[in-house]
Amino acid sequence: MKQNQQLELSKEKVPLFKFILIGDQSVGKSCIVERFQNEQFSYKTKATIGVEFIKKLVQVDKGLVEIQLWDTAGQEQFRSMIRGFYRGSAAVIIVYSVNQKESFDQLSIWMNEIEQHAHPEIIKVLVGNKCDLPREVEKQEAESFMNNNQFSLFFETSAKTGENVEEAFVQAAKLVLLKYLSSESFRQATRVNKKSADPINIIKSSNDNQSYEGQSPSQQKNSNSSGCC
Asked: In this structure, which CATH number among 3.40.50.300, 3.30.70.100, 3.40.1190.20, 3.40.630.30 belongs to the domain 13-225?
């Protein structure tokens, strides 16, 4: 049986979590979604009008998690409409472009949106997209912003090459599961598919409960190479 057929058969047995993708226009949010969903890249991606969403199953340790990913428009005129989509979200992925300093400078505005409209325990992931292009934002500057604003994860990605795109969502899903296990308020606030398996059982069945919260990919690699489990 092919892997995608196996995933379809398992679909009713996995938890469903809502993720929201935010950031300025033209930072590549829709291209990230296309890469994540279909492992493809297109130069002809149209600007998102309002919000769009996809669903995808991802492997987290020994279990599966279904991500409902909401791709939001970056234009300011859609901000008021988007605010309602923070409700029930387990994770927020904030995207800037490493070759557009202005998009990085606007992150504080997006942080205000999160603070006002998202659950205080939401998993926050910072993503610097277009790392295949000449940069205007240094990685150290982004890591400093991450640490100062209590992000759980930071990745530099390329929707064009696929670098770190899948990894960002997988690691975010892992932290969502761990937060679901440890926080009653988070469990109440996030929308989990009530017909599916309890995420707690997935966590307990895993042999690898290592948390990467607050680490960049390079720090995660060093943690793995140290032999810590």
From this structure: 3.40.50.300
